Amino acid sequence: MDDPRAAENLQVIRTLMERAALYRRALAPVSLAAGVLGVLAAVLGWSAGLDSARGFAGFWLAVAAVTLAVCLLIMRRQALQADEPFWSPPARRVAQATLPALSAGLLAGGIVLLGNARDPLAVWWLPGAWMVLYGCASHAAGFFMDRGIKLFGALFIGLGALLLLCVATRPDAAGLPPLRMAHVVMGAAFGGLHLAYGAYLRGTERGTPPA
User: Fold this and answer.
1) Could you say which of 56, 79, 95, 105 is the most buried, measured as most Cβ atoms within 10 Å of its Cβ?
2) DSSP one-letter string for 16-75
3) Residue-by-residue DSSP string for 84-152
């Protein structure tokens, strides 16, 4: 007797392989939108002087929520234009793969937001943790999409780990830059890297074979 789950898994894998080029092209506008929002948020956070622990965590959690909503709207519009269901089995698999790491990032931010961190410099670990966890989510999504997203995720993991190492090797919080500088780090990582990746995808789109 055939296992319905096995048949569904095979169909999902076949669909992902057939649409790899389509998904690759779809990532370009999503990455560019995320990059623009990341840069704008960094400028806003710097200009507003958000240098408290709770202010920093709450601000960037809100930015993440807005960015996620915008990216989902872009993907929904692309699905409608392609006359395809938005919440398809492949989309569910990608969401399930990325959910643990993204949930851990939400938890990390929530700990700072709801905690009692008095020293703003004590939360310098948060940008590095977010970068590592986002990199893990992107790397997990790469098992269902173009391998470039796995390299993109690995870059986030490496840079985030390096930032965490730099923070951990400081003798005390007094040796860290002002928390205001963390907005620059977040803008460079979540803004700059997304812009670069989106530009790369857009620039190499012609060489992508049709799905």
Assistant:
1) 56
2) HHHTHHHHHHHHHHHHHHHHHHHHHHHHHHHHHT--SHHHHHHHHHHHHHHHHHHHHHHH
3) --SS-HHHHHHHHHHHHHHHHHHHHHHHHHHS----GGGGTHHHHHHHHHHHHHHHHHTTTS-THHHHH
Residue 21 tokens read as 């080029």
pTM of the model: 0.84
Of 206, 53, 34, 24, nearest in space to 124 by CA: 53
> Which run of H or E residues covers position 201?
helix 193-203
Q: What count of other Cβ atoms lies within 10 Å of the Cβ of residue 171?
A: 6
Q: pLDDT digits over 43-65, tens only?
A: 999 999 888 889 999 999 999 99
Residue 173 in 3-state DSSP?
A: helix
* Cβ neighbours, 10 Å, residue 132: 24
Domain boundaries defined on the chain: 24-207
Using alpha carbons, select from 203, 156, 146 the residue that is nearest to residue 32.
203
